[in-house]
Design brief:
single chain; 40% helix; globular
């Protein structure tokens, strides 16, 4: 990813929260005119849903806001991801811990919580999988706020 800033969004199964974050951030980066300077992807700490598209409820919620998750397929985080990506953003503390267990120590600094880029007390994006529509809407609200904060941070640092 020579001239691009690379960002990986990570949740457990890579069918709800992390593809939502990927789609939302991609949308906002496109609107900001910087998408060509970014490499954006998502993955899961588990391979439960490898190869599957995002959860239909997440796709529907995103589409209602004009955002797409078209073409995404779940995958598990690989050892190469720790080398490849500049920033690895976990959706919650459990997944951040798992990532740090798997990552070589020299890459621990790349692993952060996505909601660090949003104002407020919440630090974990809640998993909407076993809930209803409101859970997917809440995830979108949090992810949109964090995406805007991440864009502000990136514009001040690496991609100006």
């Amino acid at each position: 990813m020579e001239d691009k800033t690379s960002i990986l969004f990570v949740c457990m199964g890579n069918i709800c929260r992390s593809p939502t974050a990927e789609g939302v951030f991609r949308h906002h980066a496109t609107e900001a005119g910087i998408i060509e300077r970014l490499h954006i992807d998502s993955a899961g700490t588990h391979a439960y849903h490898a190869g599957e598209p995002p959860d239909r409820r997440a796709v529907t919620a995103a589409e209602r806001r004009g955002m797409s998750m078209q073409g995404m397929r779940a995958r598990r985080v690989t050892v190469d991801d720790f080398e490849t990506f500049d920033l690895i953003l976990a959706m919650d503390r459990d997944n951040a811990s798992r990532l740090k267990e798997e990552a070589p120590p020299e890459h621990h600094g790349k692993i952060r919580l996505f909601l660090e880029y949003r104002e407020g007390d919440e630090i974990d994006v809640p998993d909407p999988y076993y809930g209803g529509t409101a859970g997917f809407e809440r995830v979108l609200d949090l992810v949109e706020e964090a995406s805007r904060g991440l864009l502000r941070t990136l514009s001040r640092t690496t991609i100006s």
